[in-house]
């Protein structure tokens, strides 16, 4: 099985990487960055073939945009690696440190996961981002990208491995899993004991498949049906800016807002303003009766509009009679990614926080801030929407495990 | 489906529990403790029926011992709940707190998981321990014990729920899943979205089944093929005490040692001593040629002895030529639970720590110290052997998730 072979080599490489110094890891990251820029022409030449094949397969413009590399995007990926090199090394950090009554010294220390599998869609930048973050966090990575990006991923991994070969780290800390064979996804998901963690990055159907089929531990990422609730005590200026930014700033990403909920007490003042602002920004509003009454461009919301992650310039919108109704709506239809409240009432904001159960809650801020960069992590491998291990943006710290080191002088249990 | 109904009620109860104060939770725990003691006679009467049925089914003495409750054991369970009440409330703890350059205040706060499923074998004490720890950590629990403990578990849960009914917390924070129907395990494991976490406690086959069938996130616990390595630089007095304690103190538990590795340079001095000590303690040694030569009571190790978790007074034992050979043996045969080294060399100890990949490493201490009580947690729901979320003993802190709360004044992303 190809995965067993790749994972075995990854394990060997991971053992060397686990004891590498920060300087060795940073040197490797910088070498990878330089190599990507130096070999931009080869990378773009391979990418053109992927893009052409996707275009002839009638892919959407958004899909093609994500797949396409440019010279600027290659530089951006290289700079991402340099940024990771500049971050502190999470490995070896002492998290807890106690001396017990019996003299035992107990330390909890951050250690690498070991071998991490990434399964993702047609975004070649994930190939480089994931390689950088896993390397710095001390784990070897098995990269299983989409077959439609196979030529791009192949050259990116080849360039990074060639750069690694000039350093003290083994090239096998970064390996590509063949995407021509669909079975490699299943093999990766069931490589229990060979792979320590699998992270899927992509749409809801990919995440669901990974969760259902995997026997390897998984961190789910990124499905976001995010809500903005405009409370009766909202500052309407802030509310307009936050709703528009949450929806329009980058509609294709998981922290973009998909549903707008407005308290009925401010509906008459707020709905005409936000409706015209959203429409002026090119947003299609799927509204309830109150929104429909505002503007002829509003379309009637269907039942399933409340559950859709549009990923586009569309938003579902309705009026609610209370904070509690807003909370119930979010609990029923949300994906527990990010919800925002706009309110000047600290009491209401506190109640919103206490009664929801999402990875991130924004009080008077755009949903778009749920992001590793915005949280100061410096790099992000994805946004976890599960409650286990890491919740919200995952940076270097979240990409580690821990171990307990207990030092004694011959202690035994009585 | 019975699980959907139970989980729905658990979710409702969990929402009330999530906003309960520490005082409310502690009062409930104390009421449960008092009720268990007050109704000891009923509990023992039910337990007698389970034990009689198991005895007539030819269960082992160890199995019957785990299943059997006594007045003292009921008091011990009640005192366990009182101990949990005395511990700090993990919920609401601020883990990280930063103000970003744009003025956003970002806090990471500890929150409950929500609904936790426990799947375990015929140990009625787990019913009470798990109920107490999940309640204090803010989650509702669905308890799926073994059918052979069904009468004991039924009365324990009935007593705890009756006590809860006298408090401000809903009784549905503690619910028993019927064990007569085997399908309830599968239903619990696939109750995705209804159950936030499943924790199996039991032997290797239970853990494996849970991992393979579950689509709900799992924390694996407790399979321990633990090793003691006696280094060439060992203090032999300490080594004898640590090996014997690690094996003999409580052989049925997961942190008991199952394999002894001895450096060849001290074999001639150490093997006769440890062999006679272990045999005097009633331990069957499955040894290599060097151990076989020490004593006629040593039996020859078979290939699979290195992989067995005996859970009894048996140990596999061999001589190794180096630290590296010991590490390779542990990496090949171990379960990454706990390994101990006995050595006076700090350099060797450090190398042992750096090259292994286990939940806990003991330096000159018994493997038996991998334990929530011994680590100062005050209570323990199990010992995680996975790298995700929690590794090693899991106390109240490990039984929580986190959320991000971001407070702004209208910030949007530019």
Automatic annotation (TrEMBL), chains A, B:
Signal sequence annotation: none
SUPFAM superfamilies, per the entry: ALDH-like (SSF53720)
Catalysis: reaction(s): L-glutamate 5-semialdehyde + phosphate + NADP(+) = L-glutamyl 5-phosphate + NADPH + H(+)
Swiss-Prot/TrEMBL GO biological process terms: L-proline biosynthetic process
PROSITE patterns, per the entry: PROA (PS01223)
Top-tier EC class: oxidoreductase
Enzyme Commission numbers on file: 1.2.1.41
Record's keyword annotation contains Cell membrane: no
Gene3D superfamilies per the UniProt record, alphabetical: Aldehyde Dehydrogenase, Chain A, domain 1 (3.40.605.10), Aldehyde Dehydrogenase, Chain A, domain 2 (3.40.309.10)
InterPro entries recorded: Ald_DH/histidinol_DH (IPR016161), Ald_DH_C (IPR016163), Ald_DH_N (IPR016162), Aldehyde_DH_dom (IPR015590), G-glutamylP_reductase_CS (IPR020593), Glu-5-SA_DH (IPR012134), GPR_dom (IPR000965)
Pathway: Amino-acid biosynthesis; L-proline biosynthesis; L-glutamate 5-semialdehyde from L-glutamate: step 2/2
UniProt source species: freshwater metagenome
Pfam families in the cross-refs: Aldedh
Keywords for the protein's UniProt record, in alphabetical order: Amino-acid biosynthesis, NADP, Oxidoreductase, Proline biosynthesis
Protein name per the record: glutamate-5-semialdehyde dehydrogenase
Gene Ontology MF annotations: glutamate-5-semialdehyde dehydrogenase activity; NADP binding
Aldehyde dehydrogenase domain mapped to chain residues: 9-277
């Amino acid at each position: 099985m190809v995965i067993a072979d790749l994972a075995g080599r990854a394990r060997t490489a991971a053992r060397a990487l686990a004891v590498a110094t920060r300087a060795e890891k940073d040197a490797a990251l910088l070498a990878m960055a330089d190599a990507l820029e130096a070999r931009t022409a080869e990378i773009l030449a391979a990418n053109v073939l992927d893009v052409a094949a996707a275009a002839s397969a009638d892919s959407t413009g958004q899909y093609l945009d994500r797949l396409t590399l440019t010279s600027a995007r290659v530089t951006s990926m290289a700079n991402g690696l340099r940024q990771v090199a500049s971050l502190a090394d999470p490995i070896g950090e002492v998290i807890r440190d106690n001396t017990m009554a019996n003299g035992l010294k107990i330390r909890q220390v951050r250690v690498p996961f070991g071998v991490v599998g990434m399964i993702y869609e047609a975004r070649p930048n994930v190939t480089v981002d994931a390689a950088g973050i896993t390397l710095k966090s001390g784990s070897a990575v098995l990269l299983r990208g989409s077959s439609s990006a196979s030529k791009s991923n192949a050259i990116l991994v080849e360039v990074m491995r060639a750069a690694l070969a000039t350093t003290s780290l083994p090239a096998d800390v970064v390996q590509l899993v063949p995407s021509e064979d669909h079975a490699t996804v299943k093999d990766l998901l069931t490589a229990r004991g060979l792979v320590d963690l699998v992270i899927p990055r992509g749409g809801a159907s990919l995440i669901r498949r990974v969760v259902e089929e995997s026997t390897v531990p998984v961190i789910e990422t990124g499905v976001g049906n995010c809500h903005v609730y405009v409370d009766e005590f909202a500052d309407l200026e802030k509310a307009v800016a936050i709703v528009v930014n949450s929806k329009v700033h980058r509609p294709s990403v998981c922290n973009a807002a998909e549903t707008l909920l407005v308290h009925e007490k401010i509906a008459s003042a707020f709905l005409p303003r936000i409706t015209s602002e959203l429409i002026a920004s090119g947003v299609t509003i799927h509204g309830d009766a109150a929104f429909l009454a505002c503007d002829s461009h509003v379309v009637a919301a269907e039942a399933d509009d409340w559950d859709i992650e549009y990923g586009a310039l569309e938003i579902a919108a309705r009026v609610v009679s209370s904070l509690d109704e807003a909370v119930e709506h979010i609990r029923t239809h949300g994906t527990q990614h990010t919800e925002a409240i706009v309110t000047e009432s600290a009491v209401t904001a506190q109640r919103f926080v206490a009664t929801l159960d999402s990875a991130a809650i924004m009080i008077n801020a755009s949903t778009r801030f749920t992001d590793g960069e915005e949280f100061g992590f410096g790099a992000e491998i994805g946004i976890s929407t599960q409650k286990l291990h890491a919740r919200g943006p995952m940076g270097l710290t979240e990409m580690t495990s821990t171990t307990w080191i207990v030092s004694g002088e011959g202690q035994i249990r009585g």
